[in-house]
Amino acid sequence: xxxxxNGEKTSHxxxxxxxxxxxxxxxxxxxxxxxxxxTSTCGSCTVLVNGESVKSCTVLAAQVDGxxxxxxxxxxxxGGEMDAVQNAFQQKHALQCGFCTPGMVMAATSLLRENPDxxxxxxxxxxxxxxxxxxxxxxxxQAILSxxxxxx
Amino acid sequence: xxxxxxxxxxxxxxxEALSLLAEHGDDAKVIAGGxxxxxxxxxxxxVPEFLVDIGRVPDLSYIRGEDDHIAIGALTRYxxxxxxxxxxxxxxxxxxxxxxxxxxxxxxxxTIGGSIAHGDSASDVPAVVLALxxxxxxSGPSGVREIPxxxxxRGPFETALEPDELLTEIRxxxxxxxxxxxxxxxxxxxDWAIVAVVVQGESVALVNMGSTPLRATAVERALAxxxxxxxxxxxxxxxxSPFADRNAGPDYRxxxxxxxxxxxxEEAATRAG
Lengths: 152, 273
Ligand SMILES: Cc1cc2nc3c(=O)[nH]c(=O)nc-3n(C[C@H](O)[C@H](O)[C@H](O)COP(=O)(O)OP(=O)(O)OC[C@H]3O[C@@H](n4cnc5c(N)ncnc54)[C@H](O)[C@@H]3O)c2cc1C
Ligand code: FES
Ligand code: FES
Hints:
Chain A has about 150 residues and is an alpha+beta fold. Chain A is built from five helices and five strands. In chain A, about 35% of the residues lie in helices and about 10% in strands. A five-stranded mixed beta sheet of chain A has the order 2-1-5-3-4, covered by helices on one side. In chain A, helix 2 crosses helix 5 (about 140-150). The longest helix of chain A has 14 residues, at about 100-115. The model of chain A has no long low-confidence stretch (mean pLDDT about 95). Chain B contains twelve helices and 14 strands. Chain B has three domains: about 5-55, Uridine Diphospho-n-acetylenolpyruvylglucosamine Reductase, domain 2 (2-Layer Sandwich), CATH 3.30.43; about 60-175, Uridine Diphospho-n-acetylenolpyruvylglucosamine Reductase, domain 3 (2-Layer Sandwich), CATH 3.30.465; about 180-270, CO dehydrogenase flavoprotein, C-terminal domain (Enolase-like, domain 1). The model of chain B has no long low-confidence stretch (mean pLDDT about 95). Chain B has about 270 residues and is an alpha+beta fold. The N and C termini of chain B lie far apart (about 55 Å). In chain B, the strands form four sheets. In chain B, strands 4-5-10-6-7 form a five-stranded antiparallel beta sheet. A four-stranded antiparallel beta sheet of chain B has the order 11-12-13-14, with helices on both faces. The structure holds flavin-adenine dinucleotide and FE2/S2 (inorganic) cluster (2 copies). One FE2/S2 (inorganic) cluster (FES) binds near residues 96 and 135 of chain A.
């Protein structure tokens, strides 16, 4: 199968039952995308497929053959400088252990591309599918609102 | 490797999907968004030997206004239902209920056809279809048939669909009344409903009050006889057989059905003005 990951075409043989998250981590070698629950609840495996957020533990790699996939690794610029959402997470202390962070950042990216001017309520609704065991969401919500301001 | 081994084929057209299903019979399963099927396959509660991916079949994702109904392609995703201008205008009930399914990631993948074909009594959209007296359009080896939603949901995870058939379109009559409401109670933000209630005009349907989506016929009858909302809503649990799970027992579900039905009828009446 061939998918474009963070702008680069990758072609691999995959077993039919391979989940997208395992393909990204174990075959493509991009390990920012985490596996938290494996039951589609925690959102730590969130990536973008054709620009939309999905839980990559609940998608077969084969289902996205031919698609564009974006992971956290694709957000930083060529020189490694962080993008607006990543920066805001750092500035607003929106992470502690960092486990949920890649999924949070990708969910936020999906939201801000669709709605660059979200209300706090809309940000909270957009994070419904992402669990954090450390920070209690307040700083995460503040980070996303401040990233939105920066992007606008 | 988490799910059991299977052979995956992506169908290019509905005809190709049907012929693969005909060939592989009971060993095959259709996959659309995969958001009900893959979780079951990971637990190996479902172990198909052959998966037919219909996710890319062209022309099965649309929302169209027809003469007397709205036609929705089976592959239309919740996200598209939630943000449809046509639904916002003509069938806000469905847009609203779709926006309350799971979370944004789930709504980007899950399809209306998958939700209906799956036949889970905890799912939201099937109860909306039932409340609207929708019709399910199904293609199979012997052609196309139309199944009224009242005959479609048969039991837990059991529908009138045969294993070699595809659900292709959902037809929803344009509602005559502007009175609608969707009330859903969950225990955690992203969960399925413990109980949900759908009101459209004088139709009332219940989520998770038995092994299929149900019409609250006692409430509908009371409303038709001119009962006041609180009296009609008090009958919401009549004829239901709710089950117990980690969220709630049957008594609590019956209580919720009454409370949510009252709220839904009141909200619908306010909307109708
Ligand atoms: C974390 C999470 C939370 C969720 N929360 C909710 C919720 O709050 N409310 C709710 O209602 N649902 C919820 N769901 C379920 C979700 O809505 C599913 O996406 C949807 O029910 C099934 O659609 P699908 O396209 O993913 O179907 P799939 O999983 O691909 O298929 C489901 C079943 O239907 C069959 N099928 C699919 N399409 C067709 C077709 N066109 N013709 C014939 N058979 C077909 C498949 O063979 C399979 O048996 C949740 C799911 C997850 C993972
Ligand atoms: S690992 Fe995918 S949602 Fe938790
Ligand atoms: S920062 Fe630790 S889980 Fe969110």
